[in-house]
C-alpha cells in the first residue's frame, strides 16, 4: 500500500463527512483544501464561524462543501464535533486548534463522545523513502507502559486499521532489544506470549512474531543473518513497541531522519479520530484523513453485518 493508493481508495467512498473541532486554524484549513482537491470528503466545521468563512474564501473553496457551526470556545467545538460523529452526522472526527487534553476529554465523554468500551490506541503509517510499501507503528501516543492485556488490544486495533486498507493478513512484529526471551527483560516475555497467543488463535487475522529487534523486523537480510525464519521476520507490516518512549523515538526518527510521510489515527473508539500535531504538514493531515475514512468505511461494514 502506497499513500497515493490510500488517497485514491478513500476518494472512491461515498458520502464521507469529517467533523473538525476548532477548525478556525490556517494549518487545518490547508489540509481541508488539499482533501477537497483530492475529493476525499465534505466537512462539518466547528469553531469561530467568521474566521472559518474568511479562511474558506481565502482559499476559494466552494461553500457547498461545508457545514459551519459557530462555537464560542474550543471546548464547545470539541464536544459538539464529537457528538456529531456519535450521532452519525459525520464518520470521522478531526482535531483542530484545540488543546489535546480538551479534545480527548470530549472524545471520551460517556454520554456525548465516542467511547466504545474498547481500548483506544494510536496507529501510525509511514511511507519511507526506499521502501516499497508503507509500514505501521503502534502505540506511540496513548499507552505509556502497556500491560500484556493492553498489547493484545493494541495489536487487534492495529490489525483492524491495516485490514481496512486491504492488508489481508498483516505481519506483526513485537519489538524488543533482542530476539531471544530474556527473563530480566519484560518486553521479550510479553513478545513471546503474544506470539504464542496468536498461534493458538487468541489473536486473530494476523501473523505475530517476537521478540524481534527493529532491524530483524524490517530487513530480511538482517533477519537471515540472525537465523530468523518465518513470515514476519524482515517483512513486518506493523511494529508493536513495548512502551511509549520507543514508539515516540521511532516515529520522530522516521520523520526527521528518514523524511518519511506519515498518516496517523486513533482507533478503538466508535469512529476513527484524526489527532494530528501542529508540526504535521497539510499533506500529512490529508493522508491521515484518508486513513481514517477507510477505517470508518470498514467500521460501517462490520456494524452492518452484526
Automatic annotation (TrEMBL):
Residues 76-292 form the Phosphate acetyl/butaryl transferase domain. Signal peptide: none annotated. Its EC number is 2.3.1.19. InterPro entries: P_Ac_Bu_trans, Phos_Acetyltrans/Butyryltrans, PTA_PTB. It holds the Pfam family PTA_PTB. The keyword Acyltransferase applies. Keywords: Acyltransferase, Transferase. PANTHER family: PHOSPHATE ACETYLTRANSFERASE. Belongs to the phosphate acetyltransferase and butyryltransferase family. This is Phosphate butyryltransferase. It comes from Exiguobacterium indicum. The gene is yqiS.
Amino acid at each position: 500500500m502506497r499513500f497515493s493508493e490510500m488517497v485514491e481508495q478513500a476518494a472512491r467512498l461515498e458520502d464521507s463527512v469529517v467533523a473538525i473541532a476548532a477548525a478556525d486554524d490556517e494549518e487545518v484549513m490547508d489540509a481541508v483544501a488539499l482533501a477537497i482537491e483530492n475529493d476525499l470528503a465534505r466537512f462539518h466545521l466547528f469553531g469561530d464561524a467568521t474566521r472559518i468563512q474568511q479562511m474558506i474564501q481565502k482559499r476559494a473553496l466552494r461553500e457547498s462543501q461545508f457545514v459551519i457551526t459557530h462555537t464560542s470556545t474550543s471546548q464547545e467545538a470539541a464536544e459538539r464535533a464529537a457528538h456529531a460523529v456519535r450521532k452519525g452526522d459525520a464518520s470521522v472526527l478531526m482535531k483542530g486548534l484545540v488543546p489535546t487534553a480538551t479534545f480527548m476529554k470530549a472524545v471520551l465523554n460517556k454520554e456525548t463522545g465516542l467511547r466504545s468500551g474498547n481500548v483506544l490506541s494510536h496507529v501510525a503509517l509511514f511511507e519511507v523513502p526506499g521502501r516499497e510499501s508503507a509500514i505501521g507503528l503502534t502505540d506511540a501516543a496513548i499507552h505509556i507502559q502497556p500491560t500484556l492485556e493492553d498489547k493484545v488490544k493494541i495489536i487487534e486495533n492495529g490489525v483492524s486499521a491495516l485490514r481496512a486498507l486491504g492488508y489481508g493478513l498483516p505481519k506483526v512484529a513485537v519489538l524488543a532489544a533482542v530476539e531471544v526471551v530474556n527473563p530480566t527483560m519484560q518486553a521479550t516475555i510479553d513478545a513471546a506470549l503474544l506470539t504464542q497467543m496468536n498461534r493458538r488463535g487468541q489473536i486473530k487475522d494476523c501473523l505475530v512474531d517476537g521478540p524481534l529487534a527493529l532491524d530483524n523486523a524490517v530487513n530480511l537480510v538482517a533477519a537471515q543473518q540472525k537465523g530468523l525464519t518465518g513470515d514476519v521476520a524482515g517483512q513486518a507490516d506493523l511494529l508493536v513497541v513495548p512502551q511509549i518512549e520507543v514508539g515516540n523515538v521511532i516515529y520522530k526518527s522516521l520523520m526527521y531522519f528518514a523524511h518519511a510521510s506519515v498518516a496517523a489515527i486513533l482507533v478503538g473508539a466508535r469512529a476513527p479520530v484524526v489527532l494530528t500535531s501542529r508540526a504535521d504538514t497539510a499533506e500529512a493531515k490529508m493522508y491521515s484523513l484518508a486513513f481514517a475514512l477507510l477505517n470508518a468505511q470498514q467500521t460501517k461494514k462490520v456494524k452492518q453485518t452484526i
